[in-house]
Amino acid sequence: MARQALRQSIRYVSGSDGVRLAWASTGSGPPLVKAANWLTHLQYDLESPIWRHWIQFFAEHFHFIRYDERGCGMSQWEVPEVSLPRWVDDLELVIDAATLDAPATLLGISQGGAACIAYAVKYPERVSHLILYGGYATGWAKRGDEQGLRRFQAIVELIRLGWGTDTVAFRQVFTSRFAPGASMEQIAWFNELCRRTTTPEIAAHLMLARSEIDVRALLPQLKVPTLVIHAVDDQVTPLNASRELAADIPNAEFVQLESRNHVLLEDEPAWAHFKETVLEFTGRGAAARSNNTHADRFDALSARERDVLNGLVTGRSNAEIASSLFLSEKTIRNIVSRIFEKLEVQSRTQAAVLARDHGFQGTVQR
Q1: Domains of the chain listed by start with CATH number
Q2: Which of 5, 190, 193, 269 has the least C-beta neighbours within 10 A?
Q3: For 279, how many CA atoms within 13 A lie in the half-sphere containing its CB?
Q4: Among the residues of 163-283, which ranges form H helices?
Q5: What is the mean pLDDT of the chain?
Q6: Per-residue pLDDT reduced to its tens digit, 12-25
Q7: Residues 126-140: pLDDT tens digits?
Q8: Which value, to the nearest 10 degrees, does the dihedral of the CA atoms of residues 191, 196, 202, 205 take?
Q9: pTM of the predicted model, to two decimals?
Q10: Smallest Cα–Cα separation from 14: which of 90, 80, 68?
C-alpha cells in the first residue's frame, strides 16, 4: 500500500544571537512540539526509513512542530554558541513562532529531553504534557562513569577523523549504535543523513555540548504530567538514565520498551507499544478509539442507506430523497430509522453532523 504523502510547511526564525532556525509544521489536532535531537533534516526526514514513521504518526494525531537544531540540517551550521541554555532558547523561539492556540505536549528525544524539562519548569502553563524518550538528566561528563566517558570521547574523536571521508565504516560505527536492529538500507540512509546534515567539527562540538548537560536540580520542580519511555537495551543512552528521570520527577509515569534501538523502527513491536502509550497518555487514545468506532458504524451502512444519508447531509426532505431515488416516502422513512439505529443517533440533524464530522462522502464503490 502506498503511503500518504506528508505535507509540511517550513519556515525560518532568527534568535537573539542571530542564528537562523528552520522549523516545520504538519498535521492537525492538539499541538505537539518535538525539541531538536541528534542530527535531523526537515526535508530529508520525510523520505527516511528511520524517521518517516515517527513524523507520520505524530502528524496523524497532532499539530506536529519540529525543527533542526542550531548547527545542522536546514538550520544555520556555523553558530556562535552551542549549549543547553541556547537549546532552551531555541525551543522557546520555535514555540513562539508557531503561535500555538493551546498548551503543547513537549516531546524530548535523547538530548532534547533536557531542553523540554527546562522549558516546562520555566513555562508550566504553556505545557499540557511532557514526554521524554531515551532521555537523560546528565551528559557523560557529569555521570561519574569513567569507562562510559572514555567510550564517549572515543566516539567524538572518531567523528572528527572519519565523518567527512568517503569511508562509510567511520560513520557506521557511530550510526549503528542508534539502530542496531536496522537493515542495511536503513543504516545506509542514516550514514548519508549524517554526512549531509553537518560537518565533522560541528558534529563533534554538538556531541561535547551534550556531555555537559545537567538538569538534575530542575526535575523536582516539574509540575506537568510527565511520561518517561526507554528501550531496555538502548545502546546510546543507558536505561538507568530514564529510571533516574522517572524517580526524581514528581508523579512521572515510566514505561520500558523491549528494544535495543535508540531510534525505534517501524516494524518492531516496541514501536506499536510506543504509539499506544503516547496516545493514552495524551488522551488521544480515547479519541482514536471513538473515531474507529464511528468509522465502523459508517462501514455498516448499505449502499442504499449511504444514498439516503447523503440526502440527509445535503438537507433534503424525505419526499425529495424518495423522488431522487425512485422510492416511496414510507421506504425512505424506514431506511432513515435504520440509519439512526446503526449510527446511534436520534435525529436527522445528529446524523448529518456526525457524517460531516467524519468526512462522509456518500455512496462508495465496494
Answers
A1: 9-282 (3.40.50.1820), 300-357 (1.10.10.10)
A2: 5
A3: 18
A4: 168-175, 184-197, 200-211, 239-248, 269-282
A5: 89
A6: 999 999 999 999 99
A7: 999 999 999 999 999
A8: -30
A9: 0.77
A10: 90
